Amino acid sequence: MAFRFGVVVFPGSNCEQDVQYALSYLGYEARYVWHQERQLHGFDALVLPGGFSYGDYLRCGAVARFSPVMDAVVSFAEAGGPVMGICNGFQILTEAHLLPGALLRNIGLKFLCQPVSLRVEQSVCLWTLPEDAGRVLRIPINHNEGNYICDADTLKALRANKQIVLRYVGDNDNDTGDDSGQLYQAPNGALDNIAGICNAAGNVFGLMPHPERVVDGISGCTDGRALFNSLVRRMVGVS
Amino acid sequence: MSGLDLGGIPVPVTDGMDVLEPKRALELAVALGLKPDEFDNILAVQGRLPSLTELYIYSLMWSEHCSYKHSKKQLRKFSSSGAKVLQGPGENAGVIGVGDGWAVAFKMESHNHPSAIEPYEGAATGVGGIIRDIFTMGARPIASLDSLRFGSLDKPRQRYLFDGAVAGIGGYGNCLGVPTVGGEVYFEDAYEGNCLINAMAVGLMRESELTRAIGSGPGNLVVLIGSSTGRDGIGGASVLASQEFDEAAENKRPAVQVGDPFEEKLLIEVCLELLKAGRFVALGDLGAAGLTSSASEMASRGGVGIDIDVRKVPQREDAMQAFEIMVSESQERMLAVVTPEDWPAVEETCTRWGVAASRIGTITDTGRFVVRDSSLPPEQQIVADMPAEMLAESAPEYDPESRRPAYLDEAQGFDALAFIEKRERERDNLDYTQDLLTLLGSSNICSRAWIWRQYDHQVQNNTVLLPGADAAVLRIGDTGRGEMSTRGIAISTDCNGRYCYLDPYRGAQLALAEGMRNLACVGAEPVALTDCLNFGNPEKPEVFYTFEQAVSGLADACKHYKIPVISGNVSFYNESFGMAIYPTPTIGIVGVLEDVSVALDAAFKQAGDVIILVGECTDELGGSEYLKTRYDKVAGSPPQLDLDLEAAVQAAVRACVQARLLASAHDLSEGGLAVALAESCIAGSLGASVVLDGEVPPVAALFAESASRILISADPEQVEPILELLLGHQVPYSVIGDVGGSVLAIDTVFEGVQKAAVAVPLNALAAVYHDTLETLVKQ
Questions:
Q1: For residue range B658-717, what is the model confidence (pLDDT) as tens digits?
Q2: Segments in B97-237 forming alpha helices (H)
Q3: Which residue in B has a C-alpha nearest to residue A12's C-alpha?
Q4: Chain B residues 251-310 with CB within 8 Å of chain A
Q5: Which residue of chain A has the CA closest to B484?
Q6: Which CATH number is A4-236 given?
Q7: What's B71's DSSP letter?
Q8: Do residues B274 and B223 lie in contact, with contact meaning Cβ atoms separated by under 8 Å?
Q9: Do B345 and B436 fall into the same domain?
């Protein structure tokens, strides 16, 4: 039986169809889960897609976190179920305290839609493979609030526990700074260039970039496949 | 009611009665923008004095914005028929078939006046309005493009308008999940008092899903879906869109609507779900003049009547009078006709999405547009009773006086080349490299990445070329249905207002030619057109002349190319303090690619590739960006346009793209060949060595803006078949150089003398090109 993803849809989600399409393209089963559902049955993993849940008129994700479905998402995650939050989904996961830290407005106070380079870090995350560490992926970002922040102790813990999954790096190489020794700074200003983190157990993964946009190669790149495929490979040893 | 400022509209003090004294009625009619003879017309149609509500309704329906009373006659010059046209003008949007049973709906519309007052909300609601026009037709909105015009960014107010409008477009479109994939922007002093925000939206559906806003079936329910109704935007169509601006413009801020993209996103999902399930008899959106125009047009199209109770309309403010509810332009509302049997299903779907749906009236067989207010005593409840068809279709039609403006002869008599050559003889620092850098760093040519980075241009996963390419290219597919095709569409919006100012007839044709050329560069075949005709006050003969000429030019060229005009919008009164904008007939053109994978961009791809210029260099510098940027002069005749040569150049390049022979293709426009070469170099991070050997002086070879030219590059092995194709299409061409290195070097040969005209490192080109816009905005 195909690996089955649940794609959680909030009012205002706008990437759920793209995520569903990308997962189907990769040969997985993907079903929508409406935000008012209270039960989650038969899913191997969940994805919270991007968008503007409830319009994001309050802090991003702050309303969605109280959606009926979220209790079930939290239980699923606490039981070790793999959960990925993309963009607005990442924001919701931080609001729901499934992931530490918060996403502030981009440092330039402008919405940013552009491809970025991401280095896969050595981490405990279920959604990446150990052998991918050091690999650089080209995946677009698309957000107004992607400036990751957390307190110093949390950052220390994220580093120590290998919870930092993806970091923004300079466009041309694996390098985190320029020749003058200046550190590379992510376009959104994220702390420590953090683009994606996971919880200590590695099953809950939040990232600002949109891997579903680089799966079928429409824009000439397929780097998004790795993240979805890695999870399935770890979970069922295939794909 | 006293003390409420409705943007300069006098609010009559009434005691709940909807009755007017004759003298007061005429005064109010004039204050609402109606002319005395139009008031007489109302008396004739009604056979009595209009009520207050009726007067408001007439003033909006017969406003320029809703009735097209000054433009209707001219617009009949356009042909809207064609084999692929499924729906022409007259509906919310035009629709074409694009193959394999897929259909595309599109339209462009202006939101100029609201944006000039409140740029963020003005631009945002412009996007919201045009997107509603698209899903009303049954299509999922798949793309949005924006054509913008502002004054010089040296002025703080212009930076505020530009920054605000871009943020508003992004803020709304990004939330909806509709990618903003293209558009254009120009900065000219002529737009200083009156910026232009023209929003185009495109939607995709199966041909069988096409829905129209035709009310039918007496006894059917009239259902209002979406946001509640407030006093926002009252008089938007009459006060803002149909009058010139003056000192009091700021006071019109209350007439600007406020957008709620989240509500619109829900509306899209609700309406598409219900349309798919066949639950709507008709669907229309509430735009200019709100419920009034939507309901009366729906009734008029179906030859039926409609009976509405304003008290059934959910209101977000207290004590709203009937006329306020009828003319409010509160955003994110849709009007549907539903059979009584389907109502429970409609209600269920709306509730599930958290969207309000209210039964506000019924379809009747009387042909009358009846508005009642059930809060009034029974004998006073009917506040408006008018013939629906007369209201929607019988607006007055004018044939305004037209007079050729005096400035045209002088401007067209100007010999741009002679002027430049004279000035060059006086210059001791002739430096075309510097001139090229100045052009690349000018606001009209520099990179637009600062804008499109703020727009989600990839959601829905069908964006083939990133913004910045000559045309937007989208795969035809729908991730929601899981249906992806190998076909594609290409879209371009264009208009050089300066050309239209110098020659409105030819300028409009050049806009079309450029749009078509942009499609050819990505390999697409043009299919149909929408337009957004932005002009000054049509009651001024010299302004009307430019309108008449531009429409003729565009209509003639469209007929020549057999491209139907399937939707559009006219925006008049784009003047402030008596100064009209440049005539700006913006076009939005849509084309089809049988195989979307052939699409290519303008970037040079590989060192060693051969660069070929298709088309011919002439010495046309009139109206050019070079003349303006280098010598601060707007004069001369815009480039000549040979319609057949243009078609041949496009066909030849399109054939090359479709045969996958090219590495890049780039249309030549503002700044001429030198700028096009620089742009292809910058985009590909590759230099080029070029020799221009021709009949024209170096300055013209580099910067003239002669039409019908495309710059292509290709692997040397492909050159032979390419040249065969070009010869086969009988188009002039020249092989001008090679891609490679890290310098753009252009030599010119004129009268037997070869000179190094331009030599500039790639990083110097890229720096000015990339950094300019952000620097200008932040100055």
A1: 999 999 999 999 999 999 999 999 999 999 999 999 899 999 999 999 999 999 999 999
A2: 112-117, 119-135, 156-176
A3: B262
A4: 260-263, 265-266
A5: A21
A6: 3.40.50.880
A7: T
A8: no
A9: no
